[in-house]
Design a protein that fits this description.
Length: 482
Protein backbone atom coordinates (compact mmCIF):
# COMPACT_ATOMS: atom_id res chain seq x y z
CA UNK A 1 0.00 0.00 0.00
CA UNK A 2 1.23 3.44 -0.92
CA UNK A 3 0.38 6.48 1.15
CA UNK A 4 0.47 9.57 -1.03
CA UNK A 5 0.48 13.04 0.42
CA UNK A 6 -2.14 15.47 -0.89
CA UNK A 7 -3.43 12.89 -3.39
CA UNK A 8 -7.15 13.38 -3.97
CA UNK A 9 -9.19 10.22 -4.72
CA UNK A 10 -13.00 10.20 -5.11
CA UNK A 11 -13.63 8.11 -2.00
CA UNK A 12 -13.10 10.13 1.16
CA UNK A 13 -12.40 8.92 4.69
CA UNK A 14 -13.24 11.17 7.64
CA UNK A 15 -12.51 10.79 11.33
CA UNK A 16 -15.15 12.93 13.08
CA UNK A 17 -15.29 13.53 16.81
CA UNK A 18 -18.43 12.52 18.65
CA UNK A 19 -21.26 14.96 18.05
CA UNK A 20 -19.42 16.86 15.29
CA UNK A 21 -21.39 18.48 12.47
CA UNK A 22 -21.33 15.95 9.64
CA UNK A 23 -21.24 18.62 6.96
CA UNK A 24 -19.12 16.45 4.68
CA UNK A 25 -22.30 14.53 3.90
CA UNK A 26 -24.90 15.62 1.35
CA UNK A 27 -28.21 16.92 2.61
CA UNK A 28 -30.26 13.76 2.07
CA UNK A 29 -27.73 11.55 3.77
CA UNK A 30 -27.34 14.02 6.58
CA UNK A 31 -31.04 14.04 7.19
CA UNK A 32 -30.88 10.27 7.36
CA UNK A 33 -27.92 9.98 9.72
CA UNK A 34 -29.04 12.78 11.97
CA UNK A 35 -32.52 11.34 12.16
CA UNK A 36 -33.70 8.59 14.40
CA UNK A 37 -30.92 6.17 13.55
CA UNK A 38 -28.41 8.89 14.17
CA UNK A 39 -24.73 8.35 13.56
CA UNK A 40 -23.02 10.02 16.51
CA UNK A 41 -19.37 9.25 15.67
CA UNK A 42 -18.83 7.35 18.89
CA UNK A 43 -15.37 5.83 19.21
CA UNK A 44 -14.72 3.30 16.41
CA UNK A 45 -18.27 3.52 15.08
CA UNK A 46 -18.53 3.31 11.32
CA UNK A 47 -20.77 4.97 8.73
CA UNK A 48 -20.03 3.91 5.15
CA UNK A 49 -21.50 4.78 1.80
CA UNK A 50 -19.19 3.12 -0.65
CA UNK A 51 -21.43 1.60 -3.28
CA UNK A 52 -21.81 2.87 -6.86
CA UNK A 53 -23.80 6.13 -7.07
CA UNK A 54 -23.28 6.64 -3.35
CA UNK A 55 -21.67 9.55 -1.56
CA UNK A 56 -18.33 7.74 -1.54
CA UNK A 57 -17.62 8.42 2.10
CA UNK A 58 -16.45 6.45 5.05
CA UNK A 59 -16.71 7.86 8.55
CA UNK A 60 -14.91 6.29 11.49
CA UNK A 61 -15.81 7.99 14.74
CA UNK A 62 -13.19 9.11 17.23
CA UNK A 63 -15.50 9.48 20.23
CA UNK A 64 -14.88 12.33 22.67
CA UNK A 65 -11.70 14.39 22.38
CA UNK A 66 -10.97 14.11 26.09
CA UNK A 67 -10.93 10.30 25.85
CA UNK A 68 -8.86 10.17 22.68
CA UNK A 69 -5.28 8.84 22.63
CA UNK A 70 -2.82 8.68 19.76
CA UNK A 71 -3.25 4.90 19.77
CA UNK A 72 -7.02 5.32 19.29
CA UNK A 73 -6.19 7.22 16.13
CA UNK A 74 -4.05 4.31 14.88
CA UNK A 75 -6.90 1.94 15.67
CA UNK A 76 -9.44 4.16 13.89
CA UNK A 77 -7.28 4.26 10.74
CA UNK A 78 -6.80 0.49 10.95
CA UNK A 79 -10.56 0.11 11.20
CA UNK A 80 -11.06 2.37 8.16
CA UNK A 81 -8.66 0.23 6.14
CA UNK A 82 -10.57 -2.89 7.16
CA UNK A 83 -13.88 -1.45 5.94
CA UNK A 84 -12.32 -0.25 2.67
CA UNK A 85 -10.81 -3.66 2.03
CA UNK A 86 -14.06 -5.43 2.86
CA UNK A 87 -15.71 -3.21 0.22
CA UNK A 88 -12.96 -3.94 -2.33
CA UNK A 89 -11.98 -0.29 -2.49
CA UNK A 90 -8.65 0.31 -4.26
CA UNK A 91 -8.05 3.97 -3.58
CA UNK A 92 -9.28 6.41 -0.99
CA UNK A 93 -8.22 9.73 0.48
CA UNK A 94 -8.13 10.55 4.16
CA UNK A 95 -9.17 14.01 5.24
CA UNK A 96 -6.74 14.69 8.08
CA UNK A 97 -8.66 15.47 11.25
CA UNK A 98 -7.69 18.56 13.24
CA UNK A 99 -7.65 17.71 16.91
CA UNK A 100 -6.90 20.09 19.75
CA UNK A 101 -3.89 18.92 21.72
CA UNK A 102 -2.53 16.66 18.95
CA UNK A 103 0.09 18.09 16.63
CA UNK A 104 -0.31 17.63 12.89
CA UNK A 105 2.77 15.43 12.56
CA UNK A 106 1.63 12.97 15.21
CA UNK A 107 -1.83 12.71 13.62
CA UNK A 108 -0.28 12.09 10.22
CA UNK A 109 2.02 9.38 11.59
CA UNK A 110 -0.73 7.64 13.56
CA UNK A 111 -3.09 7.52 10.60
CA UNK A 112 -0.38 6.32 8.22
CA UNK A 113 0.54 3.62 10.71
CA UNK A 114 -3.03 2.47 11.18
CA UNK A 115 -3.41 1.96 7.44
CA UNK A 116 -0.07 0.19 7.09
CA UNK A 117 -0.89 -2.06 10.05
CA UNK A 118 -3.87 -3.40 8.12
CA UNK A 119 -1.68 -4.65 5.32
CA UNK A 120 0.22 -7.41 7.08
CA UNK A 121 -0.54 -11.06 6.43
CA UNK A 122 1.78 -14.02 6.86
CA UNK A 123 0.94 -16.04 3.77
CA UNK A 124 4.39 -17.33 2.78
CA UNK A 125 3.26 -20.92 3.42
CA UNK A 126 -0.23 -20.63 1.98
CA UNK A 127 -0.83 -21.85 -1.55
CA UNK A 128 -3.55 -19.23 -1.89
CA UNK A 129 -2.16 -15.80 -1.02
CA UNK A 130 -4.16 -13.23 0.88
CA UNK A 131 -5.42 -10.23 -1.02
CA UNK A 132 -5.74 -6.61 0.02
CA UNK A 133 -7.77 -4.44 -2.35
CA UNK A 134 -6.50 -1.14 -0.98
CA UNK A 135 -3.56 -0.03 -3.13
CA UNK A 136 -3.24 3.68 -2.47
CA UNK A 137 -4.28 6.03 0.30
CA UNK A 138 -4.19 9.77 -0.26
CA UNK A 139 -3.50 11.93 2.76
CA UNK A 140 -5.15 15.32 2.53
CA UNK A 141 -3.55 17.61 5.11
CA UNK A 142 -5.29 20.71 6.46
CA UNK A 143 -5.06 23.60 3.98
CA UNK A 144 -2.44 25.58 5.92
CA UNK A 145 -0.28 22.45 6.50
CA UNK A 146 -0.12 21.16 2.92
CA UNK A 147 3.48 22.15 2.37
CA UNK A 148 4.97 20.50 5.42
CA UNK A 149 2.72 17.43 5.26
CA UNK A 150 4.11 14.00 4.52
CA UNK A 151 7.42 14.19 6.40
CA UNK A 152 6.20 11.67 8.94
CA UNK A 153 4.80 9.24 6.42
CA UNK A 154 8.09 8.01 4.98
CA UNK A 155 9.44 7.54 8.49
CA UNK A 156 6.41 5.42 9.42
CA UNK A 157 6.71 3.40 6.22
CA UNK A 158 10.29 2.51 7.18
CA UNK A 159 9.31 1.80 10.78
CA UNK A 160 6.53 -0.51 9.61
CA UNK A 161 9.06 -2.27 7.35
CA UNK A 162 10.99 -3.03 10.53
CA UNK A 163 7.83 -4.32 12.21
CA UNK A 164 7.08 -6.51 9.20
CA UNK A 165 10.62 -7.93 9.19
CA UNK A 166 10.23 -8.86 12.86
CA UNK A 167 6.80 -10.44 12.31
CA UNK A 168 7.96 -12.52 9.35
CA UNK A 169 10.92 -13.88 11.30
CA UNK A 170 8.74 -14.83 14.28
CA UNK A 171 6.03 -16.41 12.14
CA UNK A 172 8.49 -18.53 10.15
CA UNK A 173 8.52 -22.04 11.64
CA UNK A 174 11.71 -23.46 13.09
CA UNK A 175 11.96 -26.13 10.38
CA UNK A 176 13.12 -23.22 8.20
CA UNK A 177 14.24 -20.65 10.74
CA UNK A 178 17.10 -21.95 12.89
CA UNK A 179 20.31 -20.26 14.11
CA UNK A 180 22.11 -20.39 10.76
CA UNK A 181 19.16 -19.13 8.71
CA UNK A 182 18.36 -16.46 11.31
CA UNK A 183 21.94 -15.23 10.99
CA UNK A 184 21.75 -15.30 7.18
CA UNK A 185 18.52 -13.36 7.33
CA UNK A 186 20.06 -10.71 9.62
CA UNK A 187 23.02 -10.40 7.25
CA UNK A 188 20.92 -10.09 4.09
CA UNK A 189 18.37 -7.72 5.64
CA UNK A 190 20.81 -5.37 7.34
CA UNK A 191 23.98 -5.68 5.26
CA UNK A 192 22.66 -3.41 2.49
CA UNK A 193 21.49 -0.82 4.98
CA UNK A 194 24.95 -0.02 6.32
CA UNK A 195 24.75 -2.25 9.38
CA UNK A 196 27.86 -4.37 9.93
CA UNK A 197 26.77 -7.93 10.76
CA UNK A 198 29.23 -10.41 12.27
CA UNK A 199 28.23 -14.04 12.76
CA UNK A 200 30.22 -16.30 15.08
CA UNK A 201 29.98 -20.08 14.72
CA UNK A 202 30.18 -22.70 17.46
CA UNK A 203 34.00 -22.81 17.57
CA UNK A 204 34.18 -19.03 17.93
CA UNK A 205 31.50 -19.09 20.64
CA UNK A 206 33.57 -21.72 22.49
CA UNK A 207 36.60 -19.48 22.21
CA UNK A 208 34.67 -16.70 23.97
CA UNK A 209 33.85 -19.12 26.79
CA UNK A 210 30.08 -18.79 26.51
CA UNK A 211 29.46 -22.00 28.43
CA UNK A 212 25.90 -21.23 29.54
CA UNK A 213 24.78 -20.43 25.98
CA UNK A 214 26.58 -23.52 24.65
CA UNK A 215 24.95 -25.78 27.26
CA UNK A 216 21.51 -24.83 25.98
CA UNK A 217 22.59 -25.18 22.34
CA UNK A 218 24.19 -28.59 22.82
CA UNK A 219 21.01 -30.67 22.54
CA UNK A 220 20.31 -29.59 18.97
CA UNK A 221 21.79 -30.80 15.69
CA UNK A 222 21.45 -27.21 14.48
CA UNK A 223 24.57 -25.41 15.65
CA UNK A 224 24.31 -22.09 17.49
CA UNK A 225 25.23 -18.71 16.07
CA UNK A 226 26.24 -15.53 17.89
CA UNK A 227 25.13 -12.54 15.86
CA UNK A 228 26.47 -9.01 16.40
CA UNK A 229 24.99 -6.13 14.40
CA UNK A 230 26.65 -2.72 14.52
CA UNK A 231 25.05 0.48 13.31
CA UNK A 232 27.54 3.22 14.13
CA UNK A 233 26.65 6.49 12.38
CA UNK A 234 28.40 8.47 15.15
CA UNK A 235 31.68 6.61 14.60
CA UNK A 236 33.38 3.74 16.45
CA UNK A 237 34.42 5.79 19.49
CA UNK A 238 30.97 6.86 20.66
CA UNK A 239 29.24 4.48 23.09
CA UNK A 240 26.21 2.64 21.71
CA UNK A 241 22.79 1.67 22.95
CA UNK A 242 23.06 -2.11 23.02
CA UNK A 243 19.98 -4.24 22.33
CA UNK A 244 20.09 -7.93 23.19
CA UNK A 245 17.35 -10.20 21.84
CA UNK A 246 16.55 -13.69 23.11
CA UNK A 247 17.07 -15.96 20.12
CA UNK A 248 15.66 -19.40 20.86
CA UNK A 249 14.58 -20.46 17.38
CA UNK A 250 12.72 -23.27 19.13
CA UNK A 251 12.08 -24.02 22.79
CA UNK A 252 10.89 -27.56 23.39
CA UNK A 253 11.75 -27.14 27.07
CA UNK A 254 14.54 -29.69 26.72
CA UNK A 255 14.41 -32.52 29.28
CA UNK A 256 11.91 -30.40 31.21
CA UNK A 257 9.76 -31.00 28.15
CA UNK A 258 6.83 -28.68 27.53
CA UNK A 259 3.35 -30.16 27.04
CA UNK A 260 2.33 -30.24 23.35
CA UNK A 261 -0.12 -27.37 23.53
CA UNK A 262 2.34 -24.92 25.04
CA UNK A 263 5.17 -26.14 22.77
CA UNK A 264 3.22 -25.50 19.60
CA UNK A 265 3.97 -21.74 19.58
CA UNK A 266 7.60 -22.01 20.61
CA UNK A 267 8.89 -21.05 17.16
CA UNK A 268 8.18 -17.58 18.55
CA UNK A 269 10.82 -17.87 21.28
CA UNK A 270 13.11 -15.73 19.13
CA UNK A 271 10.72 -12.75 19.10
CA UNK A 272 13.27 -10.70 21.07
CA UNK A 273 15.89 -11.44 18.41
CA UNK A 274 13.44 -10.61 15.63
CA UNK A 275 12.59 -7.32 17.32
CA UNK A 276 16.21 -6.18 17.46
CA UNK A 277 16.72 -7.04 13.78
CA UNK A 278 13.53 -5.17 12.84
CA UNK A 279 14.57 -2.19 14.96
CA UNK A 280 18.02 -2.03 13.36
CA UNK A 281 16.39 -2.06 9.92
CA UNK A 282 14.02 0.78 10.84
CA UNK A 283 16.82 2.88 12.38
CA UNK A 284 19.12 2.41 9.39
CA UNK A 285 16.37 3.06 6.81
CA UNK A 286 15.48 6.30 8.59
CA UNK A 287 19.18 7.19 8.97
CA UNK A 288 18.78 7.87 12.70
CA UNK A 289 22.07 9.34 13.92
CA UNK A 290 22.71 7.24 17.00
CA UNK A 291 25.09 4.33 17.57
CA UNK A 292 23.20 1.10 18.23
CA UNK A 293 24.55 -2.43 18.57
CA UNK A 294 22.29 -5.49 18.54
CA UNK A 295 23.27 -8.92 19.84
CA UNK A 296 21.61 -12.32 19.47
CA UNK A 297 22.69 -15.63 20.96
CA UNK A 298 20.74 -17.95 18.64
CA UNK A 299 20.14 -21.63 19.38
CA UNK A 300 17.50 -24.31 19.82
CA UNK A 301 16.48 -25.92 23.12
CA UNK A 302 16.09 -29.60 22.21
CA UNK A 303 16.45 -33.11 23.61
CA UNK A 304 19.14 -35.56 22.61
CA UNK A 305 21.86 -37.74 24.10
CA UNK A 306 24.03 -34.62 24.28
CA UNK A 307 21.42 -32.24 25.69
CA UNK A 308 21.95 -30.59 29.08
CA UNK A 309 19.89 -31.96 31.93
CA UNK A 310 18.03 -30.84 35.01
CA UNK A 311 20.63 -30.90 37.79
CA UNK A 312 23.62 -30.03 35.59
CA UNK A 313 26.03 -27.31 36.66
CA UNK A 314 27.32 -25.17 33.80
CA UNK A 315 29.84 -22.36 33.49
CA UNK A 316 29.41 -18.95 31.88
CA UNK A 317 31.44 -16.33 30.06
CA UNK A 318 31.49 -14.31 33.27
CA UNK A 319 33.07 -17.25 35.10
CA UNK A 320 30.28 -17.92 37.61
CA UNK A 321 28.69 -21.36 37.69
CA UNK A 322 24.97 -21.95 37.19
CA UNK A 323 22.87 -24.77 38.60
CA UNK A 324 20.37 -25.91 36.02
CA UNK A 325 17.25 -26.54 38.09
CA UNK A 326 15.09 -26.58 34.98
CA UNK A 327 16.22 -26.94 31.35
CA UNK A 328 13.12 -24.96 30.31
CA UNK A 329 14.55 -21.85 31.98
CA UNK A 330 17.01 -21.73 29.07
CA UNK A 331 16.53 -18.17 27.85
CA UNK A 332 18.27 -16.65 30.85
CA UNK A 333 21.31 -18.91 30.26
CA UNK A 334 21.72 -17.72 26.68
CA UNK A 335 21.07 -14.11 27.73
CA UNK A 336 23.55 -14.33 30.62
CA UNK A 337 26.40 -14.74 28.13
CA UNK A 338 24.94 -12.31 25.60
CA UNK A 339 24.46 -9.61 28.26
CA UNK A 340 27.94 -10.18 29.67
CA UNK A 341 29.34 -9.85 26.15
CA UNK A 342 27.35 -6.64 25.65
CA UNK A 343 28.57 -5.24 28.97
CA UNK A 344 32.24 -6.14 28.55
CA UNK A 345 33.10 -6.53 24.84
CA UNK A 346 30.97 -3.75 23.36
CA UNK A 347 31.32 -0.02 23.99
CA UNK A 348 27.81 0.12 25.50
CA UNK A 349 26.31 3.11 27.28
CA UNK A 350 23.31 1.01 28.30
CA UNK A 351 21.82 -2.42 27.72
CA UNK A 352 18.24 -3.35 26.88
CA UNK A 353 17.35 -7.01 26.59
CA UNK A 354 14.15 -8.18 24.97
CA UNK A 355 13.02 -11.71 25.71
CA UNK A 356 10.08 -14.09 25.63
CA UNK A 357 11.35 -15.09 29.02
CA UNK A 358 8.58 -16.31 31.32
CA UNK A 359 5.05 -17.64 31.37
CA UNK A 360 4.94 -15.99 34.80
CA UNK A 361 5.01 -12.57 33.12
CA UNK A 362 1.86 -13.50 31.20
CA UNK A 363 0.23 -14.56 34.45
CA UNK A 364 1.21 -11.24 36.06
CA UNK A 365 0.39 -8.81 33.24
CA UNK A 366 -1.69 -10.66 30.66
CA UNK A 367 -1.19 -10.89 26.89
CA UNK A 368 -0.88 -7.22 26.02
CA UNK A 369 1.58 -5.72 28.48
CA UNK A 370 5.38 -5.98 28.50
CA UNK A 371 6.97 -6.58 31.91
CA UNK A 372 10.15 -4.68 32.75
CA UNK A 373 12.90 -5.16 35.30
CA UNK A 374 15.69 -2.61 35.66
CA UNK A 375 18.71 -1.54 37.69
CA UNK A 376 18.36 2.09 36.56
CA UNK A 377 15.09 3.97 37.05
CA UNK A 378 16.19 6.88 34.87
CA UNK A 379 16.87 4.62 31.90
CA UNK A 380 13.61 2.79 32.55
CA UNK A 381 11.77 6.13 32.51
CA UNK A 382 13.05 6.77 28.98
CA UNK A 383 11.95 3.34 27.78
CA UNK A 384 8.55 3.89 29.41
CA UNK A 385 8.16 7.25 27.68
CA UNK A 386 9.00 5.65 24.32
CA UNK A 387 6.37 2.97 24.96
CA UNK A 388 3.76 5.64 25.65
CA UNK A 389 4.51 7.21 22.27
CA UNK A 390 4.49 3.87 20.47
CA UNK A 391 1.34 2.52 22.09
CA UNK A 392 3.07 -0.70 23.20
CA UNK A 393 2.06 -1.01 26.86
CA UNK A 394 4.81 -1.66 29.37
CA UNK A 395 4.88 -1.98 33.16
CA UNK A 396 7.77 -2.09 35.59
CA UNK A 397 7.86 -5.07 37.93
CA UNK A 398 9.16 -4.54 41.44
CA UNK A 399 12.53 -6.17 41.97
CA UNK A 400 13.32 -6.08 45.68
CA UNK A 401 16.91 -6.79 46.62
CA UNK A 402 15.70 -9.43 49.07
CA UNK A 403 14.57 -11.61 46.14
CA UNK A 404 18.16 -11.83 44.90
CA UNK A 405 18.87 -14.27 47.75
CA UNK A 406 16.40 -16.71 46.17
CA UNK A 407 18.81 -17.17 43.28
CA UNK A 408 21.64 -18.47 45.44
CA UNK A 409 22.65 -21.97 44.36
CA UNK A 410 23.52 -24.93 46.57
CA UNK A 411 26.24 -26.60 44.52
CA UNK A 412 26.68 -23.83 41.94
CA UNK A 413 26.93 -20.04 42.36
CA UNK A 414 23.46 -19.23 41.09
CA UNK A 415 20.44 -21.27 40.01
CA UNK A 416 18.39 -20.82 36.86
CA UNK A 417 14.99 -21.29 38.47
CA UNK A 418 13.53 -20.34 41.82
CA UNK A 419 10.12 -21.90 41.31
CA UNK A 420 6.82 -20.29 40.43
CA UNK A 421 6.34 -17.33 42.80
CA UNK A 422 7.43 -14.06 41.22
CA UNK A 423 8.91 -15.96 38.27
CA UNK A 424 9.10 -12.93 35.96
CA UNK A 425 10.94 -10.92 38.64
CA UNK A 426 13.44 -13.60 39.62
CA UNK A 427 14.19 -14.23 35.94
CA UNK A 428 15.00 -10.53 35.57
CA UNK A 429 17.16 -10.58 38.69
CA UNK A 430 19.06 -13.55 37.29
CA UNK A 431 19.93 -11.48 34.20
CA UNK A 432 21.00 -8.54 36.35
CA UNK A 433 23.90 -10.66 37.64
CA UNK A 434 25.47 -10.50 34.18
CA UNK A 435 25.21 -6.81 33.23
CA UNK A 436 28.22 -5.79 35.33
CA UNK A 437 26.47 -2.75 36.78
CA UNK A 438 25.75 -1.14 33.39
CA UNK A 439 22.43 0.74 33.12
CA UNK A 440 20.04 -1.99 32.00
CA UNK A 441 16.38 -2.65 31.28
CA UNK A 442 14.93 -6.11 30.74
CA UNK A 443 11.72 -6.40 28.71
CA UNK A 444 9.75 -9.64 29.06
CA UNK A 445 7.62 -9.93 25.92
CA UNK A 446 6.34 -13.50 26.41
CA UNK A 447 2.73 -12.26 26.23
CA UNK A 448 2.55 -9.41 23.71
CA UNK A 449 5.03 -10.67 21.09
CA UNK A 450 2.66 -13.32 19.80
CA UNK A 451 -1.13 -13.03 19.54
CA UNK A 452 -3.30 -16.12 19.90
CA UNK A 453 -6.11 -14.10 18.33
CA UNK A 454 -6.17 -10.67 16.64
CA UNK A 455 -6.41 -7.63 18.95
CA UNK A 456 -6.16 -3.88 18.35
CA UNK A 457 -4.34 -3.51 14.99
CA UNK A 458 -2.39 -6.73 15.52
CA UNK A 459 -2.98 -9.77 13.37
CA UNK A 460 -3.02 -13.29 14.78
CA UNK A 461 0.54 -14.51 15.29
CA UNK A 462 3.60 -12.28 15.56
CA UNK A 463 2.93 -8.66 16.55
CA UNK A 464 6.39 -7.16 16.06
CA UNK A 465 6.29 -5.82 19.63
CA UNK A 466 8.43 -3.99 20.79
CA UNK A 467 10.06 -2.72 17.57
CA UNK A 468 8.16 0.58 17.72
CA UNK A 469 9.21 1.23 21.32
CA UNK A 470 12.88 0.39 20.74
CA UNK A 471 12.93 2.60 17.65
CA UNK A 472 11.28 5.47 19.51
CA UNK A 473 13.66 5.08 22.45
CA UNK A 474 16.65 5.52 20.14
CA UNK A 475 15.03 8.46 18.32
CA UNK A 476 14.24 10.23 21.63
CA UNK A 477 17.85 9.67 22.68
CA UNK A 478 19.07 11.28 19.46
CA UNK A 479 16.85 14.35 19.74
CA UNK A 480 18.12 15.06 23.24
CA UNK A 481 21.62 15.04 21.82
CA UNK A 482 23.09 12.40 24.13
N1 LIG B 1 10.09 -19.42 26.30
C1 LIG B 1 9.56 -19.70 27.59
C2 LIG B 1 8.61 -18.60 28.10
C3 LIG B 1 7.32 -18.41 27.35
C4 LIG B 1 6.15 -18.99 27.80
C5 LIG B 1 7.27 -17.63 26.21
C6 LIG B 1 4.96 -18.79 27.12
C7 LIG B 1 6.09 -17.43 25.52
C8 LIG B 1 4.93 -18.01 25.97
C9 LIG B 1 10.70 -19.84 28.59
O1 LIG B 1 11.88 -20.35 28.08
C10 LIG B 1 10.24 -20.77 29.65
O2 LIG B 1 10.01 -21.92 29.33
N2 LIG B 1 10.16 -20.29 30.88
C11 LIG B 1 9.74 -21.10 31.97
C12 LIG B 1 10.61 -20.77 33.16
C13 LIG B 1 10.44 -21.70 34.34
C14 LIG B 1 10.90 -23.10 33.97
C15 LIG B 1 11.23 -21.17 35.49
C16 LIG B 1 8.27 -20.80 32.25
O3 LIG B 1 7.86 -19.65 32.10
O4 LIG B 1 7.55 -21.73 32.60
MN1 LIG C 1 11.88 -22.46 28.07
ZN1 LIG D 1 12.22 -20.07 26.09
Amino acid sequence: MKIQVNQDFPIKVYFPLEGAELDMLGETTRAYVTGERAYKAEAKSVYAELGPNSENVLLVGLGKLEDLSINDLREAAHKAAGVLNANKVKQASVIAPELKGFCTRRIEKAIAEGFLQSEYAFDAYLTKKSECSLEAVGYLAPADKKETAGKGIEEIQNLMDGVRIARDLVNTPSIDLYPQTLAESATSTLGDLGVEVTVLDKAQIEELGMKAFLAVAEGSDREPRFIVMKYLPEGEQVPAITLIGKGLTYDSGGYALKPADSMVWMKSDMAGAASVIGTMAALAKNKIQKNVVAIIAACENMLSGRAYKNGDIVGSMKGTTIEVINTDAEGRLTLADALYYGATKVNSECLIDIATLTGACIVALGDEVIGAVTNDDELFGKVKKASETSGEALWQLPAPKSYEALLKGDVGDIKNSTGRPGGAITAGLFLKEFVEGKPWVHLDIAGPSFAQKPWSYYPKGATGIPVKTLYQFVVDHTIKGH
